[in-house]
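Summary: Need help interpreting a holo structure output

Steps to reproduce:
1. Submit the protein chain below together with the SMILES for adenosine-5'-diphosphate.
2. Request a joint structure prediction with the ligand placed.
3. Inspect the C-alpha cell block that comes back.

Expected: a single structure record containing both the chain and the bound molecule.
Actual: see attached output.

Input attached:
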Amino acid sequence: MDNTAFQQVIHLQNVQFTWANNPSPTLVIDQLQVQRGEHLFIKGPSGCGKSTLLGLLTGINQAQNGSVTILGEDLSQLSSRQRDRFRADNIGYIFQQFNLLPYLSVIDNVTLPCRFSKQRLTRVAAPLEQRAEELLTKLHLSPALLHKPVVELSIGQQQRVAAARALIGNPPLIIADEPTSSLDHDNRTAFIELLLEQANQVDATLVFVSHDPTLEPLFDRNIDLRQVNQAGELA
Ligand SMILES: Nc1ncnc2c1ncn2[C@@H]1O[C@H](COP(=O)(O)OP(=O)(O)O)[C@@H](O)[C@H]1O
Ligand SMILES: [Mg+2]
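--- attached output ---
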C-alpha cells in the first residue's frame, strides 16, 4: 500500500486511554486530525499526557476505546508485530533523551532506522552513508564529528544526530517529544527551524510536543492538549 496517498495522516476518534492500575483515564479525545504536510505543535504542562498521546500515535500505547488511524491504518487492527513494523517503516521519532546508541558513531546512529526498515532503506536514493552525511550537514553538524562515538558530542550536537536519524529514509510522519528541553532558547529556535525545513523537503508531517509555549509561532497549527483532552473533566 502506498501510504503517501493519504491526505489525513492522523485521525483519532472517540479515543480513551487509561494506564494500568490507574483509576481514571489519562486521555479522552473525541477527535484529532492532522493533515499531510502539517507542522503541528502540541503544548501542555508536564504530566498532562503529551508523551502518552505520542505513544498512541506510534502504537506503543493501545487505546482501550476508539480508533487511532495513522496513514489510513487502524492501529488497533494490527498485531503487536505489525505495529512494530508499521512504526519502523513510517515514523521517525525524536525522543526527549534522544535514545542514541552511545558507543556507535554518529553515522551509524543515523543510518540505523534503515537497517530495521527495508522501506526506509529503499527510499534513500543516494548511498546510505552519503545521505546520512547530507542530512547532518543540512542540520549543521560538523563533518569532523561523523565518525566519533555520540558520547563525545554535546547535547546540541546529539540533538542534530537524533533529528537526522528521524528524517533518514523519508518517513511520512515525524514525531518529536520535547527534544529541545535541555537547550537555551536561541538554540531551540534554530534547531526547530532546521527540523521544519528538512521535514518540508521530504514532505513529512510533523507533530512536535513541548511544555514551552514560546515555540508556538514556528508551527502551522497549535493545540493545547488540555483543550482536546476531556479526561480531567470526567473526574
Ligand atoms: N508508564 C506509565 N505508567 C503509568 N502511568 C503513566 C506512565 N507514563 C505516564 N503515566 C501517567 O500519565 C500521565 C501523563 O504523563 P505523560 O504522558 O508522561 O505527560 P507529559 O508527557 O505531558 O509530561 C501522568 O499522570 C503520568 O503519571
Ligand atoms: Mg512527556
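--- end attachment ---

Reviewer comment: Residues 50-51, 177 surround magnesium ion (ligand 2) (CB under 6 Å). The chain has a mean pLDDT of 92.
Status: needs-info
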